[in-house]
Amino acid sequence: MLYTYAILPTPFQFSCPLFGLADQPLQCFRLGQLVAIAEQGVDISALRQLPESALLEKVLKHDQIIASLFGDSHLLPMRFGIAFVSESALYKYLQDNAQHLSDRLQFVAGKAEYTLELTPRMPMRESISAKDGKSYLLAKKQQYAQQKSWGDRLQAESCDWQNRLEQYCTHWTIPYQIVSTADLRLKCHLLLTEKQYAELSEYVNRSINSDTAGLSHWQWQISLPLPPYHFA
């Protein structure tokens, strides 16, 4: 079996020796303008039967290897667990998909994936100091109404953020994928050049600090550059 980590453009050389999931040295399998990085000796059946903690370690190592390769060249990462039964099968995959793989490599060249996360700062819930039952119930009702109003506002602002990001990415032709969560957090995967990364960061920061946007209670963070997992 040939366990495969990534597809890269030629020419490519390892900047340092890399060892894979089975502690075997990684190898290059070249065909035309493509090179597949693979490892021999990985038992896929045994891999699937690992306990969760051991499997997670293998997944993390898989990602670490891809990240190391990404430091040397743009690439198309392969999903965890992808293997070919022989060298012939791997070369056939490269040959049959040569144009598509070459097009995708050209698409991601000079770019990295970033994950932008936007999180609302929720207001502190005030303790109710009323002692008698009637006052307590009234205060509890008011607190519930305030929380619902705040929740409705955050829901509207979450939609506003999503619209802003969609319009921004569409205008600047930036590939993106937005994921929303039940707690109103937004996560957006983006494929950016370094210049686009700086411009997007400035845009988000400016939107939060704007007096007119009304988004000052949102926090944001953006990841370090990653291989294009969501855009391969």
Give the SSE map.
Elements: E1 2-9, E2 27-31, E3 34-40, H1 44-48, H2 52-70, E4 76-77, E5 83-84, H3 87-96, H4 98-108, E6 112-120, H5 133-171, E7 176-180, E8 186-192, H6 194-209, E9 218-222
Antiparallel strand pairs: 1-3, 1-4, 1-5, 2-3, 6-8, 6-9, 7-8
> Taking all residues together, what is the mean pLDDT?
90
Give a quick account of the main beta sheet: strands, pairing sense, barrel closure: 5 strands, antiparallel
Instruction: Compute the separation of the termini in Å.
Output: 23 Å
CATH architecture field of the largest domain:
2-Layer Sandwich
Question: What's the helix count?
Answer: 6
- Stated plainly, the CATH topology of the largest domain is called Alpha-Beta Plaits
**Share of helical residues:** 40-55%
Structural class category: alpha+beta
In total, the number of strands is 9
Strand content: 15-25%
The Cα radius of gyration reads 24 Å
Shape: elongated
Low-confidence stretches: none
Number of domains: 2
CATH class of the largest domain: Alpha Beta
Q: Order of helices and strands, N to C? A: EEEHHEEHHEHEEHE
